[in-house]
Each structure stands twice: as structure tokens, then as C-alpha cells.
């Protein structure tokens, strides 16, 4: 059957308190999933409270710092205590860090890696044992991991995440667990709200679709990658960037030749 429905499936989303993670959690509930939304806050963030009680799925909120191994163990233990297995994991939590090559410190690199890389590794290591065949993991990278971008620590972390994703796809494939990554371009979220106007303009100039993206446009691809419609897709890296990473720098040349 052709269906994006996730009825009866349990999906963990990290960094789900706002931005893309909240949109992913909301859309997965709409698709019928039981979503375990997690974030740093102790209480359920307001953006998640708007999930309608008439949605086909359900949402529960748990506090989780993805860098904290014991927090992941507690989450796994709690899921087991509910009698659930995990069918999907969206490693969405991430932080940005905008220092440039000659200014980036080792501490900058470590701070970003702790969340953007180690946080994903811990999630996979902790929850894969709770996953049966036909489960799926989606890691949220960035166009920064497909290009030189410009901030050193963030860019390096998103390239590292691609390596982690590919190893995980290879290692977990025999167990029927798929691992894919999505690579958003400029998406309107609280993270990008603090970006400089120059960055926004320059990014749009490099984006063939000529605009920024919405959180729902990322969530839709995440939903597809968790659904049975993508059952033979693993190890894929899908840009959700309006074409920003696809032209390899040719856009300014093309624009100049019009
Ligand atoms: P966002 O608006 O900043 O939301 C990220 C969420 O993750 C926040 O709720 C944040 O909590 C939470 N978080 C931060 N550190 C965490 C940790 N250690 N453990 C658990 N949760 C943590 O970001 P976003 O724009 O939605 O980005 C989501 C993902 O997409 C990130 O991986 C980001 O790198 C990636 N991305 C975003 C864009 C974009 O244009 N927005 C582009 C490419 C890639 P607090 O608010 O409490 O810190």
C-alpha cells in the first residue's frame, strides 16, 4: 500500500522543542506515530503543546540532553518500562557556532562536536538495541556538511555527521535498520533568526529556488525517510536546500551570463 502513515510506530525526536524538531514531531503525530519528543527543557515547550488531541498519533515529552550518555540510558529504560520498541529516531538536535577558521578554538570544536556528532552517536548506540527490523534513523545534517560553508566548527561537525551516518547505514543495514541524512539549507527557525542579514541575502543568491525554506519542508522529507515508502533507501544524503548545494558554485556564473 502506498502510505506515509506511521500508525503504531514509536519515533524519538531530539531537539524537538522548537524549529525543525518541533515541526517534525507535529508532522509525525499527524501521520499517526507515537512521538517521544525530547529537548533540554524540563517541561514540554509551548511549541509542542499545540499538537491537537484529535491528531491520529500521540505525543509524549521527555527531557534529554543528547550529549549526556546517562540521559540516553534513562530514556531507553523508560521506553522499555512502557513496553514499547523504537521504530524511528530523528537525530535533529544541533547547535551552531559561527567562529571562522583563524578564530575557531579547540573548545569551539569540542562544544559543537559534543552535540552535533557525539549526541547522534549516543542516540544510535542507545536506541538501536530497541529497534526491530524495518526501523529507520534520520540524521539532520546541513548544507554546511555538503559545502565549505564558512563557520569552521559547525561545518566540520556536519561533515563528520555524514561519516557517522554512512558507517551506521552499513553496520545497521543487515538488521533491517535504515539510516539516512537530510541536509537543510537556510530554514526559518530560531537558529537562523540570529543570522546576519548579509548571510540571508548571500544564501538566497546561491539558492536556485530563490528563497529560504520552512520547517515543514524539512519535516516532510524526514517523514518520507521514516515511512515504508523509502524502504529501500539507506545511506542516502538528501539536500533540502532549494538547490543551494547542487550547482557547485555555478549559479553566479549562470546568473552573470543571463
Ligand atoms: P533551533 O531552532 O536552534 O532548535 C534546536 C533545538 O535543539 C532547540 O530546541 C535546542 O534547545 C535543542 N538543543 C540544543 N542543544 C541540545 C542538546 N544538547 N540536547 C538536546 N537538545 C538540544 O535549530 P533548528 O534550526 O531547528 O535546527 C535543527 C537541526 O537542523 C540542527 O541539527 C541544525 O544544525 C540543523 N540545520 C538547521 C538549519 C537552519 O537553517 N535552521 C540549516 C541546516 C541545518 P535550546 O533552544 O534550549 O538550546
What name does CATH use for the topology? Rossmann fold
Biggest sheet descriptor: 7 strands, parallel
State the end-to-end CA separation. Answer: 46 Å
Number of strands: 7
Beta-strand level of the residues, as a percent range? Answer: 15-25%
Going by helix content, strand content and strand pairing, the class is alpha/beta
**Count of the domains:** 1
Write out the strand line-up for the largest beta sheet, numbering strands in chain order: 3-2-1-4-5-6-7
> What is the average per-residue confidence, as pLDDT, rounded to a whole number?
96
Q: Rg from C-alpha positions?
A: 18 Å
- The CATH C-level class name: Alpha Beta
Order of helices and strands: EHEHEHEHEHEHHHEH
Q: Per CATH, which architecture? A: 3-Layer(aba) Sandwich
Give the ligands present. NADP nicotinamide-adenine-dinucleotide phosphate
Helix % is 25-40%
Question: What oligomeric state is this?
Answer: single chain
**Can you say what the CATH homologous superfamily is?**
NAD(P)-binding Rossmann-like Domain
